[in-house]
Q: What sequence folds into this?
């Protein structure tokens, strides 16, 4: 199994996984729009970076991240927006390998930390992050405004 950055040729695979993520969170398993994915990830101003886990030609999951500034003082952080492992690949070390690759990407970019959120109603994810030694931080409230 390898972790590598997604390329524009991966837009369809990313689209399928986005549909699986929607279904996982209770929505319709509608794939993401490949044109929107290409614009968001592979344009002159990408909104995020996506890593894919692969076993040969099979895509096992994805991790999507962006950089945030300021993190603390003038430091930069890597913000993990989504980590998703397909059902058949769960509990085989894929998520751990993603976290290792994210730490490496953060260190290479000069970040001082990695930050992310996890749904309170996702006990497997919470247990995974706790097993990594990460502790929940309760000092902030998450907001969302629709445009």
A:
């Amino acid at each position: 199994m390898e972790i590598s950055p997604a390329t524009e040729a991966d837009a369809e695979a990313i689209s399928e996984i986005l549909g699986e993520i929607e279904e996982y969170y209770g929505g319709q398993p509608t794939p993401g729009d490949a044109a929107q994915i290409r614009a968001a990830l592979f344009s002159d101003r990408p909104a995020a970076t996506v890593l894919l886990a692969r076993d040969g030609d099979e895509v096992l999951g994805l991790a999507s991240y962006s950089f945030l500034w300021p993190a603390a003082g003038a430091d930069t952080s890597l913000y993990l927006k989504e980590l998703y492992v397909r059902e058949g690949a769960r509990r085989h070390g894929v998520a751990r390998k993603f976290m290792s690759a994210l730490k490496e990407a953060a260190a290479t970019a000069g970040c001082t930390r990695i930050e992310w959120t996890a749904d309170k109603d996702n006990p497997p994810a919470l247990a995974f992050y706790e097993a990594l030694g990460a502790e929940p931080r309760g000092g902030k409230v998450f907001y969302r405004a629709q445009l």
Remarks:
- The chain is about 30% helix and 25% strand.
